[in-house]
Task: inverse folding
């Protein structure tokens, strides 16, 4: 196993696990600069068990996607054999280790605490683990507190498996040449870095550190290539800025709300647009390949992976318009749209009900209107009804006046036929706010 051979030997430098930081762009950046192994952020087993493994041909990644379409973990060929997928449980420790912890509670007595630590490390070794990482601080201590180097030394001397030293970012490791000193003085086999890498990942670079602006640009390029969420990209860039977050650059980054705006803040507009064009070309190629779109039943809802692309339709034509006209032709009730918004990124998803059956796209859209259009597309494609895309033959569903953007007697029907019922409710998942909305008509 390449990973085992790399990780559990001596003189390995690793990117430590960090919440919100250890996503794919940061891991790739660390590898670019010389890290041997990279850890992803801690992932909860219950959430991962609900994910679907998806091969993303557009990004050339493998994604683990939650039912709400959030990408919980994304990886690519570049980090194969060098990424540690870290999954945790709420009850991680075996009963014998939990008993050990209960019998050796933390104490202000240094000698007693050291015995507890050593006993715990030895018990963990007996469970069969290949290596153990030791962070040289106590449970109640924070990064501002000095590192207990002697605790790492004691743990390294108490077991035969490799020990990975962690926690030296502030006290001992500021540049690449400090990493080996930290490993040697701690007595550990290897070193992992968290904050030092978060602030400037070129700490892994044997040739010396790079200017912060260069590191930020390199990170952002990975974020753009792999469609990293703008909120996460912005968070990581602000962590790199540290005390420069109120500088002109920092203010531009803080003000940005989208990946395009973040790219503009760092002067990478051209790279962003070129990358978007390449990704869109891949999407178009995949779409034109003729592969049938897969239908999945989610309870009583028929779902399909559909993204509403406005540019694929004439200026005055929409799938909702075609669906409405088709419903009138078939003498059915008007389509009913139910739209929800998630508070995390303010994206929307809609379900359309036609003839008592419900349809939606599995993807989340940037606006309520786009979400409703995507739901309409799902129904139209499932039923084989024209949707009005550029290049389709004239189906006669929409009159010539509407196709040419001219007003007719039905021009005001959208406003008169719409009614919205907005309410707010908090779901059981923290940080998620669903805003239901019902829409009748186009």
Result:
């Amino acid at each position: 196993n390449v990973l085992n051979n790399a990780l559990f030997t001596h003189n390995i430098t690793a990117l430590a696990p960090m919440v919100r930081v250890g996503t794919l762009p940061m891991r790739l950046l660390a590898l670019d600069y010389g890290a041997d192994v990279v850890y992803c952020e801690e992932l909860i087993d219950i959430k991962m068990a609900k994910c679907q493994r998806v091969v993303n041909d557009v990004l050339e990644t493998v994604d683990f996607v939650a039912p709400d379409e959030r990408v919980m973990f994304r990886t690519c060929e570049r980090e194969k054999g060098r990424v540690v997928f870290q999954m945790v449980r709420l009850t991680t420790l075996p009963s014998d280790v939990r008993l050990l912890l209960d019998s050796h509670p933390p104490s202000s007595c240094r000698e007693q605490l050291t015995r507890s630590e050593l006993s715990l490390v030895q018990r963990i070794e007996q469970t069969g683990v290949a290596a153990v990482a030791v962070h040289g601080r106590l449970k109640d201590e924070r990064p501002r507190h000095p590192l207990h180097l002697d605790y790492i030394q004691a743990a390294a001397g108490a077991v035969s498996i490799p020990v990975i030293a962690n926690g030296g970012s502030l006290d001992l490791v500021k540049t690449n040449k400090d990493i080996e000193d930290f490993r040697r003085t701690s007595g550990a086999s290897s070193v992992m870095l968290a904050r030092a890498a978060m602030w400037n990942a070129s700490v892994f670079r044997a040739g010396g550190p790079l200017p912060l602006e260069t590191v930020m640009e390199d990170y952002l390029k990975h974020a753009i290539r792999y469609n990293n969420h703008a909120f996460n990209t912005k968070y990581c860039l602000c962590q790199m800025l540290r005390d420069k977050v109120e500088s002109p650059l920092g203010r531009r980054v803080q003000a940005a709300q989208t990946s395009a705006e973040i790219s503009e803040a760092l002067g990478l507009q051209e790279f962003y647009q070129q990358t978007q064009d390449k990704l869109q070309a891949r999407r178009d190629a995949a779409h034109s390949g003729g592969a049938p779109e897969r239908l999945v039943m989610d309870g009583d809802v028929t779902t399909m992976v559909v993204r509403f692309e406005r540019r694929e339709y004439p200026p005055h034509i929409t799938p909702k318009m075609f669906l409405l006209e088709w419903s009138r032709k078939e003498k059915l009730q008007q389509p009913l749209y139910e739209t929800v918004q998630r508070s995390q990124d303010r994206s929307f998803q809609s379900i359309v009900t036609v003839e008592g059956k419900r349809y939606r796209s599995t993807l989340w859209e940037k606006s309520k209107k786009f979400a409703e259009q995507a739901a309409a597309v799902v129904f139209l494609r499932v039923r084989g009804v024209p949707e009005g895309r550029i290049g389709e033959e004239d189906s006669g569903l929409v009159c010539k006046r509407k196709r040419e953007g001219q007003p007719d007697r039905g021009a005001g029907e959208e406003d008169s036929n719409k009614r919205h019922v907005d309410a707010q409710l908090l779901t059981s998942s923290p940080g998620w706010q669903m805003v239901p909305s019902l829409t009748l008509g186009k």
